[in-house]
Amino acid sequence: MSTTPIIFLFFLFLSATVSTAITTVSSDITALKSIKSGINQKTISSFTCLYSWDFTSDPCSPPHVTHFLCGLSCSGNRVTQLTLDPAGYTGTLSPLVSQLTQLITIDLSDNKFSGQIPNSLFFLPNLQTLILGSNSFSGVIPASISNLKKLQTLDISHNFISGSLPNSLTQLTELTRLDLSYNKLNGALPKLPKNIIQLALKANSLSGYLQKQAFTELTQLEVVELSENSLTGTIPGWFFLIPSLQQVNLAKNSFTGLEILKPVNSNLIAVDLGFNKISGYPPANFSTYPMLASLTLSYNKLRGRIPWEYGKTTTLSRLFLDGNFLIGLPPKDFFSGKTSLSGSLGDNCLKMCPISSGLCLKSQKPLSICKQAYRGKLKPKS
Q1: Are the C-beta atoms of 127 and 150 separated by less than 8 Å?
Q2: How far is it, in rounded angstroms, from Cα 376 to Cα 354?
Q3: Distances from the Cα of 320 to the Cαs of 43, 216, 232, 240, 241, in angstroms?
Q4: Which of 168, 213, 250, 259 supports an S-S bond with 143, CB 3.0-4.6 Å?
């Protein structure tokens, strides 16, 4: 009789023995029990991950047939991921989450957690991803966040976080994605972590100027989303020269000025500065950005003529200049058919903007308003 089947069965038995021998460390089990108990039991429906957390079996021991079907992952006998399903859980996050010292990922997004984020969470030594977006967390971001030395992604957007951004953020040297949009943050921008690639702080109450010290050493920054805040002053020329910058949204702030320098090399693709208080002439230097495809300067206080250089760029495909006080004739190149330019030049003081062009939708301002804007020095339309 061949011994091969016997050897195979032996190794199969050995494998099964080893797999069932895994026992989650007791501190992890205590933490998981505390996390579940902190959640309103009425929101733990039968189809949710937390419903399957039955501690009559071991969290990390396979196979997971009826218990611990989802919501966590393990490596050996330690919990490494806490990823709850978006089931509408209500309650608070237990401070004992800090006992899960091997956690790499926490994702509690799209639920209804409330209260403060436990300070103990900011002492998890191995955490790389922290996603708490779309909940009802409140309180401030503590200086102790700097302890998360390995953190790469931080998303606490769509909550009720208040206070100012801590200066200790700069110590998160591994952080590449920061999203704190739709909160109640205030104050000025502190110095930002040097390896940030995506920065999103939309819809807060941030104020002050764009200070160069906040963006020092940010050579990898690609996306900046700072719209719907209370930032003010002149948008400085150095800002658009950040080496890797691709997308900028500073719309719906209180900026009053704009400085655009010619780039040496630039990856800038899209800029939205709409709904500010920017005065002066439309910057012709935007035409020197070799990859710029979308430019929005809508509803500011711009005056003068549309730079003819805008009509000569080969990359610009979306241009929104509506809601300003621009005068004269729009560049003929906009209507030559050689480009597929879309956008709007409406609600200005332009002459002879072809009604047949989609660019000219929204009628121009009444002559009386245009005269008032130029203090009566504007000649009547011919």
Answers
A1: yes
A2: 25
A3: 46, 31, 21, 19, 22
A4: 168
What pTM, to 2 d.p., does this model score?
0.91
Which residues, at least 6 apart from 267, have a Cβ–Cβ distance to it below 8 Å?
A: 222, 243, 244, 245, 246, 291
Strands 301-305 and 318-320, sheet pairing: unpaired
CA nearest neighbour of 313 among 342, 337, 293? 293
**Is the omega angle on the peptide bond into residue 5 within 30 degrees of 0, that is, cis?**
no
- Short-list 158, 245, 146, CA closest to 199: 245
CB neighbours of 136 closer than 8 A, spacing ≥ 6?
112, 113, 114, 159, 160
End-to-end CA distance of the chain: 106
Asked if residues 28 and 78 have their Cβ atoms less than 8 Å apart, the reply is: yes
Q: Which of 374, 347, 346 is nearest to 359 (CA)?
A: 346
In whole angstroms, give the CA distance from residue 318 to residue 340.
9
Does the structure show a pLDDT above 50 at 279? yes
Inter-residue contact 10 to 55 (CB < 8 Å) = no
Are 191 and 214 within 8 A, CB to CB? yes
Q: For residue 21, is pLDDT > 90? A: no
Paired tokens of 156: 């606490």
pLDDT digits (tens, 9 = 90+) for 254-272: 999 999 999 999 999 999 9
150, 149, 159: which is closest to 179 by C-alpha? 159
Dihedral sign computed on CA atoms, order 301, 304, 308, 309: negative
Which strands sit side by side in the sheet containing 325-328, from one edge to the other? 279-280, 301-305, 325-328, 349-350
